[in-house]
Each structure stands twice: as structure tokens, then as C-alpha cells.
Amino acid sequence: MRASELFDVSGEVVLVTGGGGGIGVAMAGVLALNGAKVALADIDLEVAQAAAASLCSGGATAVSVELDVRDEQMIVAAFDRVEAELGRVSVLINNAGVAHRDKAVSLPAQTWRNVMDVNVDGAFAVAQEAARRMIRYGNGGSIINISSILSEIPIRQVAAYSTSKAAVTQMTRCLALEWAKHQIRVNEIRPGWFETALTGPFLKGPGAKVMAGQNPMGRLGDGSDLAGAVLLLASGAGKFMTGSAITIDGGHSIGR
Ligand SMILES: NC(=O)c1ccc[n+]([C@@H]2O[C@H](COP(=O)([O-])OP(=O)(O)OC[C@H]3O[C@@H](n4cnc5c(N)ncnc54)[C@H](O)[C@@H]3O)[C@@H](O)[C@H]2O)c1
């Protein structure tokens, strides 16, 4: 089979949560470029609108939707709107996320709660809504959860974030197991360090150079580094993959 056929996503309708942010836009962009219809769902409607407009100006089909993944009514409304405008969602990229930088001993309870609300509860609620619809329509689908290399590697001052991403890893495997019989594949992408708004506090000043220096490949990730894995998991090329994790980190997690 030709690669263009194997990795074909032109029939897919993709909903990307956190779709206005750095990694969400990059992943939506490669899918849209290859013919998928994409919905960028974000709590920050302005960034999602700007990203969708930029994709549309390149000839893609893209819409923006306001969505707070902590709000179940908004989740249902977002899926309803995307179905009405683009068709049934066949690929969900569960990407919305927040991070923090606090010493564990003084981490505010509210920060811990919010990180869990968005990164864990929100991701679960969106996956649940996607799966309910995929099961109802009977065509299966692909759910791609965005975790992090920090789901396995502890570093200082990100206890809540790392714990939340470890939960996403286990959630991926649990959902993959339960939903395989419905032909719903649930997989995980684990990015290393990418320069986005989320990592701004860690990478400001000399931080980016220090982090790049710690990377075996000598640099931070950029959006294009995610393209291959996203195409694999969203297309028929990954049709027998479920419960898997793909690490994209230039080797950061295996050592210096
Ligand atoms: N940047 C990295 O180095 C890196 C590394 C590993 C994992 N990740 C993960 O990738 C994902 C995307 O991160 P990013 O780096 O693009 O960050 P980002 O801050 O650029 O994008 C995150 C997006 O999520 C949105 N968002 C936040 N809370 C939300 C909510 N409650 N409901 C809906 N949308 C919400 C934000 O508005 C933002 O547009 C996150 O899950 C993050 O944990 C990022």
C-alpha cells in the first residue's frame, strides 16, 4: 500500500482540545494539511479562532469552538456543534493541559486541584463523550491522549503536573482495554520539551538553552516533530495499535 493511502486522514473529523495552544495547533495543522476537517476547541476562544483562521487561509477546513474541559455541558455542546458543522468526530486529540512550577511543600491546594481538574478529570470527561458517540454510531474511532515524559520521570517542582500525566498514562490503557471491542483505539503521545506558552516559565532566560543542552539530540522539540506520530495514530496506519505510548523527546527520557 502506498504511504499516501496508508496514512490517509482525508475522511476524518478531528476535535483537538487545547487546540489554540502550541502543540494543539501543530497537531491540528498536519491533519488539516492532509485533508482532515479539524475543530480547535479551547477555553481561550480568541487563540482558537486565530489558529482556525490561519488553517482556513491555507485552504483547510477548520472551525473554532469555545470549550472548558472542566464543564460537562460545554463538552456536550462542543461535540454537538462540531457534528453539525463538520460531521461526526472520528478522532479526538485530548490535548488541553495546564502546568505549574511550585515546590511540593508549598504547592497551593487550589493549584493541585486545578491541574487534576483539567489534565485528568477534563481529559476523561472529553474521552467519555467521544466514546459514547463513537459507540452509538458504531464506526469506532481514535482517541489520542497527550501526556508527557514527566508521567514517568520525576523532576522537581512539578508534582501535580507529573502526577496528572501519570494518571493520563494509566487512563489511556484502561480506556483502550474497555473500548477495543467498539473499535475505539486509545493511545498516548508523550512529548518531551517543546517551547510553548505552557513551558514558558521553565524555558525563559537561559532555561531553553540549558534544556536543549540536556537533550541527547541537542535541541527542544518543535511542532513538526509530532506530525508523524499524529498521522500514524489518526489514520488506518495505526489500526491495530491501542493502549500504546509514543515518546517524542529527542531521547531526553533515556538519558543525557
Ligand atoms: N510544551 C511541552 O513541552 C509539553 C511537553 C509534554 C506535554 N505537553 C502537553 O501538551 C499539551 C499542550 O500543551 P502546550 O505545550 O501546547 O501548551 P499551551 O499552553 O500552548 O496550550 C494548552 C492549551 O490548552 C488550553 N486550555 C487550558 N485549560 C483549558 C481548559 N480548561 N479547557 C480547554 N482548554 C484549555 C489553553 O488555553 C491552551 O491553548 C498539554 O497537555 C501539555 O501538558 C506539553
Structural class estimated from helices and strands:
alpha/beta
Strand % is 15-25%
- Biggest sheet, open or closed, and with what strands and sense? 7 strands, parallel
Instruction: Tell me the number of strands.
Output: 7
Q: In terms of per-residue confidence, which ranges show pLDDT below 50 for 5 or more consecutive residues? A: none
Shape estimate: globular
Distance between the termini: 38 Å
**The named CATH superfamily:** NAD(P)-binding Rossmann-like Domain
Tally the helices: what do you get? Answer: 9
- Under CATH at level 1, the class stands as Alpha Beta
The number of distinct structural domains comes to: 1
EC number: 1.1.1.125
Keywords: Oxidoreductase
Protein name: Dehydrogenase with different specificity
InterPro entries: NAD(P)-bd_dom_sf, Sc_DH/Rdtase_CS, SDR_fam
Explained architecture:
The structure is a single chain. With 256 residues, this protein is an alpha/beta fold. The chain has one domain: NAD(P)-binding Rossmann-like Domain (Rossmann fold, 3-Layer(aba) Sandwich). The chain has helices spanning 3-6, 22-33, 45-57, 72-85, 109-137, 159-179, 200-203, 207-214, 227-234, and strands spanning 13-17, 37-42, 61-66, 91-94, 141-146, 184-191, 245-248. It has a seven-stranded parallel beta sheet, sandwiched between helices. Helix 3 links the parallel strand 2 (37-42) and strand 3. Helix 2 packs across helix 9 (227-234), helix 4 crosses helix 5 and helix 5 (109-137) runs parallel beside helix 6 (159-179). The longest helix is centred in the middle third of the chain and has 29 residues, at 109-137. The protein is globular. The N and C termini lie far apart (38 Å). The mean pLDDT is 97. Nicotinamide-adenine-dinucleotide binds next to helix 2 and helix 5.
